[in-house]
Structure formats: structure tokens, C-alpha cells
Amino acid sequence: MKVTFLGTGTSHGIPVIGCSCPVCRSTDPRDKRYRSSIMVEEGGRRIVIDTGYEFRLQMLREQVSSLDAVLYTHSHADHLSGIDDLRVFCQDGRFPIYSNQATADYIATHYSYAVKDDGFPGTPHFDSHVLEPYEEVTIAGFQITPIPLVHGRIQHLPVFGYRIGSRFAYLTDLSYVPDEVVDALQGVEILVIGALREKPHGAHLNFSQAHEAALRIGAHETWFTHINHETSAEVIDSLYSDARCAYDGLVLMI
Fold first, then answer.
1. Which residues pair with 79 in a beta bridge?
2. What pLDDT does 176 receive?
3. For 57, which DSSP code?
4. How many domains does the chain have?
């Protein structure tokens, strides 16, 4: 199974508009980050998790001509706003998308033209599926287990992480990792987890919290994603011997 990091940045992306900090001015290509997303491929099958602002650019960069499904983590714009560009994959019928109920409801409200039976030509046409927490399903031949996460401060937005197969899990935009999530991820060897920055943040794990969560899960290999512009990839790689900084275009073979 091949996992490609389409984007690894937070909602601003890196460089941030108008910012002249060292990371935004960095010449290290690992410090140029589109919004967070991954693509998973095996045996000619291909799925994507999240379609952020740069989804079109990500597909062009990776020379993607076909896609079997998209899984959504949640409804925030940096994970969803590229959804209209899925229309190129809707030429032969309704395109399958998967999410939790809250995200499906958001899409049905804000992109109603794409889920109606009488959608007009030129728009995407979706077949929207609601997944249930911890219930394994088969999507495009991949075994997928939705992992319920919490993301937020006062209002906690429901988010799905995803375990794909037995060895890999992708968790982003989470505030904490409850014991039941740790239990559900036992046996995962390669973990991708959102780690925003060094300082604490009410809606995201910071580096030390993400590292501690990875230790509880017992992953053999940990990659941080959804990173902001306060810390360079080089510095992040120096923080822990058993966790590394993901970057756009990184490929993992699992």
C-alpha cells in the first residue's frame, strides 16, 4: 500500500500570506505546505482523505487521472473546500464520498446542488455515505475503520480519523486521545497524527501531546502532520528519535 502526503500544513498553509518569519522564508522544500490530505493507493485503486483548498493542485502534481472515493475527516474549510474539483471524477456517475453524520449534513446543506438527484451538468454529483464509529467497512477494496476524534475548544467538533488495514492510521485535527481510541488502534505500526506546534493549543495536539499519544498507541513509526509555520521541518525532526515530520510529497510504502 502506498501513502502519499498531498499536504501537511494547517489551515493557513505555509508560507502564510504576508508573513516573513524564518519558516515562511525557508528554502527547504519540506517547509512549503499545502493543507493536509493524503492519498492511498494499492492494486490500481486510489482513495483520498480530505479535499482542501489546493486539491486541484495536489491532483495535478501527483498526475492523478482517476479516483475511487474520498473520505472526509470533518467539515472545516481547509479539509473540504476543494470538493467542487471532484467534478472531473463524476463523468461516469455519482462519485462516492464518506464521512461522519455531521460532515454529511454540512455537505448536504452547503453543497446541496451536488447531492440532489436532479443536479445540473457541470457540477459534481455525489453519492454520500455516512460511516459509523469503529465499524469497519470496505471502500474501493480498502478495509477502513472510522475512528471518532474530538477537535475544538468550547464547541467540540466531531472528527473522524481512519485506520486503513491493520498497520496504518491517519489522525488529524484532534484535541485529545481517549483510552477507547488507543484501544481501537492497537496493532497500528505506522501512525500519522496532527501536531500543530510546540506551544499548547486548545483545538489541536502540540508536538509533545502527539508524541505521547503515539507512545500510548504503540506505533512503531510516527509522522507529524497538520503543522503550522512556527517550527521548521528540520527542527521538528530533531525533537524525537521515534517521530518525524511529514512533508508534502512524502511517500510511505506500507
1. none
2. 86
3. H
4. 1
Residues 210-216: contacts with CB under 8 Å, at least 24 apart: 210/243, 211/239, 211/240, 211/242, 211/243, 213/177, 213/182, 214/242, 214/243, 216/177, 216/182
pLDDT digits (tens, 9 = 90+) for 143-199: 999 999 987 754 578 899 999 999 999 999 998 899 999 999 999 999 999 999 999
Which SS3 state, helix, strand or coil, does residue 186 take? coil
Range of the domain at 76: 2-253
Nearest C-alpha neighbor of 219 from the set 173, 181, 250, 251: 181
CA 180 to centroid of chain Cα atoms: 21
DSSP strand E in the chain: where?
2-7, 37-42, 45-49, 69-71, 95-99, 126-130, 137-139, 142-152, 156-164, 168-171, 190-194, 221-225, 243-245, 251-253
Which pLDDT score is estimated for 91?
A: 82
DSSP 87: G
d(CA 162, CA 143): 10
pTM for this structure? 0.96
d(CA 239, CA 207): 9
Tell me which residue of 24, 25, 32 sits closest to 250, measured CA to CA.
32
CB 55 within 8 A of CB 79: no
CATH number at residue 131: 3.60.15.10
What is the DSSP annotation of 99-156?
A: E-HHHHHHHHHHTHHHHSTTPPTTS--EEEEE--TT--EEETTEEEEEEEEEEESSSE
